[in-house]
Amino acid sequence: MGPGFVALSGAAKQAELLRKDGNHYFQKGRIGAAIEAYTEAITLCPNVAVYLTNRALCHRKRNDWKKVEEDCRRAIQIDSNSVKGHYMLGLALIQNNVYPEGIKHLEKALDLGRGANPKSYMVEEIWQELAKAKYREWEKASTKRSWELQTLKEACEAALEQKYFLDHSELEGFVDEAEIAHRKQLKSLRSVFEKVGEADAPSEVPDYLCCKITLDILRDPVITPSGVTYERAVILDHFRKVGNFDPLTRELLDESQLVPNLAIKEAVEAFLDKHGWAYNTD
């Protein structure tokens, strides 16, 4: 091999040592030192995505979302299948209220994560962030619609008032009837706007759609012989850490007795669709 290959190999080895140093500093909470180590590794090997995502994680710790976005965009250009790259880019964009693109990257990270290791903690974390992002996007749109609805309601009421006073001057002997009709029109108008507003208002997740242990919305619900529904991963974790019994009823229980609760799963998906969290919970 030529001298160029040897030099490249040496740079790669040095970059890996710097990555390990950065990891060590990060674990010790020395974020500045970790950033310096990763930056040196990037300088030596600028086409290794993990060096960039590691540095982005440091910037995330400091809430420096602009730098998180910059590093993650570079990482994705190098490796389009970088789970952490798409994930942290999505978080950075959401922080800057760029919801459509941010959600797109979170969804991409979730798909890639499920394909690589569907049971990893990171898939769960991405799912939760995606849920919050979709809800925040819908809530923001809902607030805008509420303002527009209120503006339209006030304009309609003003138009009715103007019509009433114009007609009132021409009506003789029918003032009471005109006042009654006017009040009915206002009441009907307000009722229509009230119903539209209620349909668009945020809703709390019903208790029966939440895990009895974590109180979070169910994604993979399973039901026990006693009729209690839990999140599968949560009840399995309970078996491992606490023991093989039902946390609520205290009855003996093991994994073989857990049955997928398809009715609740469908109800969860219907709720999420209705309230703007429309994405696959499989």
UniProtKB/TrEMBL annotation:
It comes from the Eukaryota. TPR repeats lie at residues 15-48. InterPro entries: CHIP_RING-Ubox (IPR045202), TPR-like_helical_dom_sf (IPR011990), TPR_rpt (IPR019734), Ubox_domain (IPR003613), Znf_RING/FYVE/PHD (IPR013083). Keywords: Repeat, TPR repeat, Transferase, Ubl conjugation pathway. The keyword Ligase does not apply. GO terms for molecular function: protein-folding chaperone binding; ubiquitin protein ligase activity. GO terms for cellular component: cytoplasm. The keyword Repeat applies. GO terms for biological process: cellular response to misfolded protein; positive regulation of proteolysis; proteasome-mediated ubiquitin-dependent protein catabolic process; protein polyubiquitination; protein quality control for misfolded or incompletely synthesized proteins. It catalyses: S-ubiquitinyl-[E2 ubiquitin-conjugating enzyme]-L-cysteine + [acceptor protein]-L-lysine = [E2 ubiquitin-conjugating enzyme]-L-cysteine + N(6)-ubiquitinyl-[acceptor protein]-L-lysine. It is an enzyme of class 2 (transferase). Residues 204-278 form the U-box domain. Its EC number is 2.3.2.27. Pathway: Protein modification; protein ubiquitination. This is E3 ubiquitin-protein ligase CHIP. The gene is LOC111437457.
